[in-house]
Each structure stands twice: as structure tokens, then as C-alpha cells.
Amino acid sequence: MASLLYVCVRPEVGAADAEHASFRRALGADVVDRLNLLDEPLDEARLEQYRGIVIGGSPFNVGDAVKSPLQQRVEHDLARIARRAIGGEVAAFFTCFSIGVVTRMLGGDVANGTPESASATVIRTTEAGASDPVFGPSAPALTVFTAHKESATAVPEGAVLLATNDACPVQAYRVGTHLYTAQFHPEPTPRDFADRMTFYRTTGYFDPEEFDLVQGQVLAASVTEGAALLRRFAEHFAPGA
Questions:
Q1: Given 12, 17, 39, 152, which is the most exposed site by the fewest CB atoms within 10 A?
Q2: Which of 108, 107, 105, 56 is nearest to 84 (CA)?
Q3: Is the pTM of this model over 0.90?
């Protein structure tokens, strides 16, 4: 059985390749397979090869007024992965855009009232987060990278809030024992995140006229605990990967 799978939902090839590398390093695994949902639809039988799945970010938003057939299919496929994780068939860690997919699937609301620009931000673990095998060792707070336009308005029914902050109250939650979601990006180093910014200079995650300033702030940040979350996720669900 293969151990870990990275699911790609980024159209920008260079950004996707770099994200894959960031996840592989953060997970501490020599091999992390890749499934690009933009190129091929989900074959659920393939998921049976894996013990852990990580879902990367995307410029998609679940609240987009107009969605292409491709985006609609991607969201449907991500929801299928989430259902398998809720059922305990595989562990999954959804990040960024995909937390919105899970939130909507669970009947929750996603809105644009609590966006965060590209930056390092401090999030606080909740009581449940402090006792969680993935988030607990990082309690009571950790610094992570964020960049999003929408977020869950509240923790959806059946989920347990793991991390929060004042700017975006729903930063991470867990459903059951095998499904984790995070609004932030746990995988990049400061260099990774700064390089990723070049692909999204004019897409609304920061003022493009302040690119050099924002990138400098990102590079100066001390951000290591996001990767620690992923390392513990791999160790807990796919030991020996």
C-alpha cells in the first residue's frame, strides 16, 4: 500500500509543482504521490492505496457566482474524498479553498466577511485542539501563512473547532477522527510562500503595488509549526511513510 497522496487543484503548473514539493518536505516523506484533479476526475478505487491524503490550495472559491464545469467537478470530487475520510476509510487534511468545500458539504455557510491577506498570522488552539494528536503539541498558539478571500462563518454541524483567531474565527476543524481542515496553508516555508506570491500578484490576495513589502514581511517571518502539523498527521496516520 502506498502511504501518502497530494491532491492538486491549482491551475498554475509552476505553483502546483512547488506546492507538491512543499507538502512532501513538510510531511517528512520520501515519496508523496500526486493526483491532479484538474487533469483527471477522481477514481475512488485509487484512494484505497493510501493511508493519508493532503489537499492543496487553489484560486477557486466555493462562493464564486459563476463556476466552470471543471470547478464544479473538482468540488464534487473533493467532497467525495471528504466523505471517505469522515467514514474513516482514509485520513485527509484539506487546506485553503478546500475547507470551504467541506464546510458546504456539511451544510455550513462560507462567506467573504473574514478574509486574510497574504501574511504570517498567529492562530490559537482551542481546548479540543490542545488535546488533538495533530494540533495538540503546537498548543497554545502557532504562526502560519494565510491568504484567502472567503471562510466558514461558523463551525459546521458535526465538526470540532481546533484553531481560531480574531481575524478569521474558523481556522481549523476536525470531523470524526480522520478528516482535518485548515483555512491556512500549513506546508510552505517563508521562501516557498514568497515564491508562490509571484503567481498570484494580481489576483486579490494583496495589493500588487506593495508586492516587495509583503514579500519581505513573509520572508522575515518565523513559520515552522504548520509543517509540524503535517509531520504529525503523517506520523499518526501513515507511520513509516
A1: 39
A2: 105
A3: yes
